[in-house]
TrEMBL record:
It comes from the Eukaryota. This is Armadillo repeat-containing protein 6 homolog isoform X2. It comes from Papilio xuthus.
Length: 107
């Protein structure tokens, strides 16, 4: 049986590795991946690069939030929306994990 985790669970484990064991972000990622793979966890839906070590959100999340803000704003200029859509398309074309994240951010 394949196990699945959320992006947040993965991010929390990486952060914990960094905080508790004084690992670099690269070491923490490598260790988290090894831990989850040893437990039979499917990581195909997980964005493995970590921008969270600086407290930032994933680019996909930021872009979807910006698109929501722009769609709720009353403006006559479509350029900012098109710009954010192009960013989202680039992010989603990277890996399936990015598309999964975008889909979850919509709701």
């Amino acid at each position: 049986m394949v196990r699945v985790i959320t992006q947040e669970t993965y991010d929390d484990v990486v952060k914990e590795n960094m905080d508790e064991f004084d690992m670099s972000p690269e070491e923490a990622i490598k260790e988290a991946i090894a831990q989850f793979e040893a437990q039979g966890v499917d990581l195909s839906n997980i964005i493995k690069n970590l921008k969270l070590n600086t407290g930032e959100e994933h680019q996909v999340s930021l872009t979807v939030k910006k698109l929501k803000e722009l769609s709720n704003a009353a403006q006559n200029n479509d350029e900012p929306i098109l710009e954010q859509l192009n960013i989202l398309v680039r992010e989603c074309n990277k890996y399936i994990a990015h598309r999964v994240r975008a889909g979850k951010e919509v709701y």
